[in-house]
Design goal:
Layout (H helix, E strand, L loop, with lengths): L27 H7 L7 E8 L7 E5 L13 E9 L2 H18 L5 E4 L4 E3 L3
């Protein structure tokens, strides 16, 4: 007879607890709190910020919706996961942000301080 499954190893009945595209600034605390689970032994949070790595980028535009345009230093994306074990949480968080970046082109329109702009990876 097989041993019963540990409660912390079971999938949560509501795996996606918060999914939103917003016109207002993102709140990493809200994202992190949304995945809290008493059975989770590990939680991981990724916060992606707008960076100036390409000739005086001031901010980013959005390809799919008329949303806010985050400036350099602003939070552009936040994802969080809770899993029974920390390694699984890190791996799941990485897969989630990689999948999101691959599928959703919302941060690829760079706006420069001289008034010019450029679509990257589109």
């Amino acid at each position: 007879m097989a041993a019963p499954e540990h409660p912390g190893e079971q999938a949560h009945p509501q795996p996606i607890r918060l999914l939103a595209i917003r016109r207002t600034p993102l709140c990493p605390d809200e994202v992190f709190q949304a995945v809290g689970d008493a059975a989770a032994g590990g939680m991981a949070l990724f916060v992606g910020t707008v960076r100036n790595h390409d000739a005086d980028v001031d901010g980013l535009g959005h390809a799919c919706h008329p949303l806010r345009s985050p400036a350099v230093g602003d939070t552009a994306v936040a994802v969080a996961v809770a899993c029974p074990h920390r390694g699984d949480a890190f791996e799941a968080c990485g897969e989630l942000i990689d999948g999101l970046k691959h599928e959703v082109p919302i941060w690829r329109h760079q706006k420069f301080s001289d008034g010019t702009d450029e679509w990257v990876g589109a």
